[in-house]
Queue: 4 jobs
Job 1
Amino acid sequence: MKRLIFTITCILALASCNNSIQKHGDIPFAKFEGLNGNVAEVTTSTFGANMRRGELRTDEYPYMVCKKVYNKNGQLVEFSHKGFDEQELTSSTTTNNFYKDGKLISCREVSDFGEKKITSESKVIEDSQSKTVFEETCNGETQKGENVYDGLTVKRFANGVLFQERTYNADGIEIGYKMYNNGEFFTSISFELNEKGEPITETSIYKDEEPTVRFYEYTSYDEKGNWLTRVEYDEMKYPHSVEVREIKYR
């Protein structure tokens, strides 16, 4: 269990450190995420939702707030994730990425779960067209991770063991990923996109269980064509959550 917790929690920092799609055309991270314009920050607040008397209603307070900060080159320099119960903060994670001459060289992540706090630091020790090698220290324990590039698929390894596999389309947009536990398949998510490259269907598979499907509806956009409001529905087309984005431009 200790090894599983270390791998799942700490290697996520390693995974977030590297914009692997840059190996397939040097696409800035903001563009890779489907954002238009010179984006500086994106803050996404997620609210619980339901239907009352045929009308979509949302909770008063968000249960999750995520913030992404980009540099002038469109590279992700900070990512924070906060979880809430009503207005009470229950968990938070902040990742900072550091670049030199336009290339990622290291990152630092701090996760606070109340009773447990985890800090990890990663540095790039090798970078080529075929792979990127990281060395990561998480709460005093060090391991080596690799991102191996094969066409539009990126495989991530922790100490030589397959941990994650991500797949992108020709435009550099992520269309699915798989997670592994000790090299064995654990769970997967795949996306169906609309003509704008936005996910409209998400299919999740956990081990040998039946697939779970989520649907997304985009209800408002800004003048740049970036969505501001998105509704998530379950398999029965019942609203599950509403995401509201605030986008700041340079």
Job 2
Amino acid sequence: MKRLPRIVLVPAMALLLALIPQVSAIADPDASCSSEDGIFWSVVWFDGSHYHYRLFDYGNYGEIKISDRDLNVNCGNLTNLAGSTTHMRKDPLSADLVEVGYDEGWDSIYVGHVFRWFYEVVISGTPIRHQGSWGSWPCTFPGVGNFMGFRATQIIGGSTWNLKVNCLDGSGDHNVGSNVAASFSGGVATAETYRFGGSNTGMSDDHRNMDYRPGDYSTWTNWTGGLCLQDNPGNNWNGYMYSSTEYRTVKNSTNNCPTPP
């Protein structure tokens, strides 16, 4: 997830606010609001002795818990301060990606935390972002502490993608991005946690029921474990695989990002 530079496309829809009572916010004027902390864990395969990142898969799905995090309110009103994504990376060393997930922000008028969906594509280092209005969802938003599904799936035979949101309310997947052009057709399925605003802010996260879509277009398949792809140094949070299909973050953990194979 990148913040600047970006091309922002905001749909014309009514502003609906998802307000959370008794919210927390961190006032920290010394924090760098333009600096992003990110944790990325990617699906792996096992060759009998070593784990390796899976390459050239055509989709990624995860159910992500809507987490209410400590935010740095000095970083701006109604801007993305934290969030999570279901993410496809072109390869482990590339910055090119396609992702769909949620942002969390701060509303100074209503004094509350607000949420929205977004998707983003990065092509040759340039991010293109599309997002909903704060509090606006294509289905019934389940609220903080509950899970939502996010899916990135390649359209067969090319490098365009569909990006989908599922509120797990029985209405199924909802396209928020259709035929979205990317720089690749297959990549590495990845779970992402991000934040802006410094080390006093939160990165709590939980992704479960994670599936990837193999490069032969066969059925969606459970993750078989994960390895850390990237963990910004000094962010005082770390990711770990709670199970082969569930990724979580923990504060001040000893589960540091292992060296990739």
Job 3
Amino acid sequence: MLATEGEIFLAYADAIAATRPHRSASAFGPQAATATLRIGSVAPLIAGTLCGPLRRFHRRWPALEFAISTGATDYLPQAVAAGQLDCAIQPFSIAVEAVCAQLELRCELLWREPLVLIQSGYVSGMTSGLTSALAVVPGCAYHTMGVVASVLSSEVLETVDMPSYEVLLANVVSGRCHAVVPKSLLRAQRGLRGLRTQRIGDTAIVLISPHQRAAALESLRTILRRRVLSWH
């Protein structure tokens, strides 16, 4: 379950998305009352990290609405290139970098997100075949198989796709699998117990956008870097 702050924010984003169509913010400056900045990201970043910075952005640009959508890490750059999104905020990978180069998009580091291996605190060791599995959410590049296999002392690590991070966390707590998640995802959960955590590395979070960016997007970039970097 998301923290109250995350639920309020996602409800607000859904309400914006349901309003009448607006023109993209990429064509407007801060005085354009009808413009909308379309931002794509992955669910754990929206719930765990982006709520505060986006509220600050809205206070700085009150006449500019923004629409939030989620998608797989390989889809978001394509949506930016197709003009369906103004930018994407997502984990970096070599594949994402290659797609951005092919599509002539700008891929810029925002911050580095700690990655943690989470395991059930109620299950001791590999008590069943299920606990040797690594849960992942398709399209979210948050797992590094070699590192995780080394930490778990397992040569073969089966991956199990989960439809959402809520389902993933429930399966980890029950001892059915392990998972690698961004630390911010755990920050967004309230009252979640029964997990053992171990930091195993970091992943880079990048801003993907066209090479020519509007003033609003530059402002968002500055807010994200200043606000989020202060947390790590």
Job 4
Amino acid sequence: MINYQCPRFGGVVHTGHLLWAYVMMQQRIHPVSQPCIVRPLRLLVVMDVIVSATLAPAPAEADCARPDVYSATVSGNTVTIEPLNDEGRGCPDPSGMLRQNVSTGQIVKLADFCGQVPEQDGTGFQDGAPYIDECVPAGEYRYGFATPYQCLSACSADYFTDATVADQLPTGCQPSQGDSGPTAATTVPWGGTIQICALEGGSSGCSVANGRGTGAVFLVQGLALLVGAALMFRRKTHR
């Protein structure tokens, strides 16, 4: 039993509700006086609504016109990392921007040396300022926030972006004034996968609700199905 969130209907539709509607339709056609079964079923449906409302979180409403990702541009030994998201996160970010060397595993936290805030594009999104990482040695790197993007059930988001610096670092490379350079860090929030979460349900506007409380919801709905099945079986044996 799965709960579906569909904005056009303004709420969550449960299989328990559908069962109740079916039983009531059958009773209008062939009325049966079984309060000892009908009343508990009604109570179960009410419990279903209460449990679902209190425990099962509603799918997050988010604008999925684009994913929450990063864009890295390499120029010589300078890497510009632009966070692209509808939360407005950019440089400086409270959690900081991390750089991980793919080959050695070395992790550093970039200085809050920021570029200019980009102009708002025609889509209505306003991105934050990019990070500028200077004097980066040759190698393959991963860049991402120390605190990842929030994983929304209806949108896709990435932990990091890749960047490859091909040029050998010139001797005596000095960062620009105001760039204090990176500092050592110990961990990154990602593992071997780039993706935090993926777009689900296509572009239909409906998404599957998930998260805490689903066990209790399933239990109540399962009881509703059992009682409903008993009611329909009893009706057939009395025809």
